[in-house]
User: What shape does this take?
Amino acid sequence: MAERAAKTLVIRGGRVVDGEAGAAPRRADVAIEGGAIVAVGEGLSVPAGARVLDAGGCVVGPGLVDLHAHLRQPGAEEAETVESASRAAALGGYTAVVAMPNTEPAIDSAEMVRAVLGLGRAAPCEVAVAGAITVGRAGERLAPMAELAALGVVLFTDDGRGVQDGALLRRALDYARGLGVTLAEHCEDEAIAAGGVMHEGEWSGRLGLPGAPAAAEEAMLGRDLALVRATGAPMHFLHLSTAGSVELVRRAKRDGLPVTAEVTPHHLVLDDAEVAAYDPVFRVNPPLRTRADMAALWEGLADGTIDAVATDHAPHPPEAKDQPFDQAPPGMLGLETALAVVAGALAGAEKDGDGTLGPVAGRLSLPGLWWDMSVAPAAIARLGPLDLRPGGHSAQGGPVAPGAAANLCVFDPAASWTVDPGALASRSANTPYRGRTLVGRVRHTVLRGEPVVVDAAAQG
Amino acid sequence: MAGIAEVLGVAEAFAEVERRAIPKVPTLRGKVIATLFFEESTRTRLSFETAAKRLSADVLSLAVATSAVKKGESLRDTVETVEALGIDALIIRHASSGAPLQVARWAKRARVVNAGDGWHEHPTQALVDCFTIRQVIAERTGVDPASLGVSCFAGLRILLVGDIAHSRVARSAVLAYAALGAEVTVVGPSSLLPPGIERWAVRVGTDLDAELARADVVSLLRLQSERGSGEFVPTLREYTARFGLTAARAERLAPHTIVTHPGPMVRGVEIASDVAELPNSVITRQVTNGVAVRMATLFLLLGAEGSAELAAGRG
Assistant: This one.
C-alpha cells in the first residue's frame, strides 16, 4: 500500500478544464497513478507518501499539443536540439509537439523519421514527426509517403515553402487520400511574394522593405482549396495570417470541405508596425500583418474557422539574426510563451476592451482557447485518445478523467513574468517578447504521470 | 536634435569656406571618420570624403570589395572591428533598408551617418536638394539665404517624377519637404508607387503634363533598373513617353521651374540628353552643394552637440 501511495501524484486546489468544449472550469483535484489519471474531484484525500503539486489559483487541463515546431535537429544544432526544444515545450505546458521536417537532411525517409523519433524518446515532451511531401522539400517529386506513414507519420508538409507546382500537389493529394494521411500546406505563392521580407502595406512602403502581399498566401490557399474540392483529400493549413485566408477557409468549411487550419500566437498579437525599428527578431514567414488581419484571425478562432493555435517555433542563433533585416532568416521562438501570450491577450481584452480582440471577448474563453491548443491539435495530429497508434504514443488532448493518460498542464493565469531571452530553455534567443511582461505562466507540466515542470522549473 | 533649418544654415557657412583659396578648416582635426560603402557609389562617397577632409578629419575608406566582408564577415563584426580602431563617425551605405539604424544600435560610441540604405532613405541627399532649391530662390529674389530661412518652402509646389517605390531619395525628400511645408506631388507608373502612399504627406498625380505645368520644382528620380524596376514597366521607351522629361516637355516648363536629379542620370530615359543642360537645371550644383551640406552634417554630429538621429534616419 505504501509502495503504491509513493507513486501517487495529486494536483491539488486547481480548477479543471477537462477538454469538453464549452465547459467552464470546475474546482477539482486530480490524482495520478502509473501514468494515468485515477481520480478527479473536489477535496480528494491524499494518500500518505503521495507527492502533491499545488495548483492553487491555477487552471488544470490536458497538456498542450503543438502542431508546428522546428526542432532544428539534425542539421542546425547550434539553433536548437530535440532535447532543448522539448524542454522549452514542457516549460510552455506542451506534452506533445509535431516536429517539422525542414531539417538538414529533410525528414523524407523512414531512416530520418526513426532518427528524430529516437531523439525524442527520452524528451520531457512527446515528439511526433511530420514528413516532407516532396524529396528534400525541393518541390519536384513525391517523398515515399507510405514508408513514412507505416511509422505513424500522419502529417506531411514541405513547410518553410509551399508546394509551388499545382500539378504535383494534386498528385500528392490523390496519393495521400489512399494512405489516410493529411497534407499540411505553408501557403505562399513565391512568384507573388517576390522575395518580400515583411507584409506588403503601409509599413513596407515607408520602411523601403520589399513586401509580400496577403495575396501571395491567399492565392495558394485558394488553389489548394480547389484541389481539395477536386480530390476529396483532407488538408491542414499552417499559420494562416490574413483576413482573406480566414474568409476562404470559412467558406470552404461551410461547403463541407475536409480542411483544418491553425494560427500562431504572434500573428494574433503582433502587427507589421513592429518592424519599424528593423529588428530582425520580427522577421517571420508569413510576415506579421495588420491589426485588421489580427482581428479577423481572432474572429476565426472564436467562430471555429481556425481549429488550432500552433507556435511555428523557429529558433535561429544570434549570428543569424544579427544581420540586416532583409538578410536575416525568418522565424521566432514560441513554445515557452505561447499560452501566456494568447491567454494573456484574451484576458487583457476582456478587461480593457482592446480594439482588435474586442468583438471576440466573451465568446472566446480560456477553456475554448485550451481546446484550440490541446484537444483540436491532438485530433489533427491524431495523438488523441481515440488514435492510439503503434510506436508508444500516449493519448494527448484529454480528457481530464479517470482512465485517461496523465498528460497535463497547470497554468496560473495571474502570474506575471518578464521574458528574458537568456533564461529561456531554447538554445536560441529570438523571442519577439523580449523584455515584455506577460500575464499567465505555466506552473507545472506532467508527462505520462511524471512532473517534468514544477513551479515553472524544468525537472531532471 | 539639429533641425533642417540649422543644417542648411551651417551648410551655408561651409559653402563660403569652399569658395576660399584654401578650402579647409581645422574644425574636426583629430577626429577619425570611416566610410563603409557596401554598395557601389561614386559621388556620395567622394562627397562625404571631401567634406571630411575639408574639416581636417582623418578619413578611412573601407573598400568592401577587398575587405573581410568578401570573406563572409558579418556587418556587425565589421562595424565592431572598425569601431575598435577608434572611429568617431561611420558613414554607411548599404543595400539593405535599415542597416544604418542597426549599425547605430551596435556602435558603442561612433556616430552613424546614413549615406543611403536600400529603398529606405538618403537623408543627406534630401538636405542637399533643400539647400540647392533655397540657394536658387535666394539668388533669384536677391535675398540672403540665411535671412530666407526655410520660409521659401512654404507652399512651394514640388513634383517628384518616376520610380517612387524603390527610391530612397524620394522617401527622404518627401519627409523633408513636407516638414518644411512644401506641397509635394508624386507622379509615376502606378506599378512603381509604394504601397500605402495614400497615407504619405503627398498628392498622387496621374498626368505628368498637367503636373509639370504647375510645378515650382521638378525632381526626376532615376529608373533603378539595377533593382529590377525594369520589370515594372513594359519598355523604357514607354516609360520615357509617359514619364520622361523629354525636350518637348522641357520646353513647356514655366520659366521659373527648377529641375533637379539626384544622379546618376540615365540620359534618354528619365531625362532627354539635352535637357540636363537646361538653364533651370541644377544638377551640377547639387553635386557641388553636396560637399557643404555633408560638412554641415559631420560638423553637427562631431563638432557640436548634434544628434545621431537626424543622420541615421527615422526610427
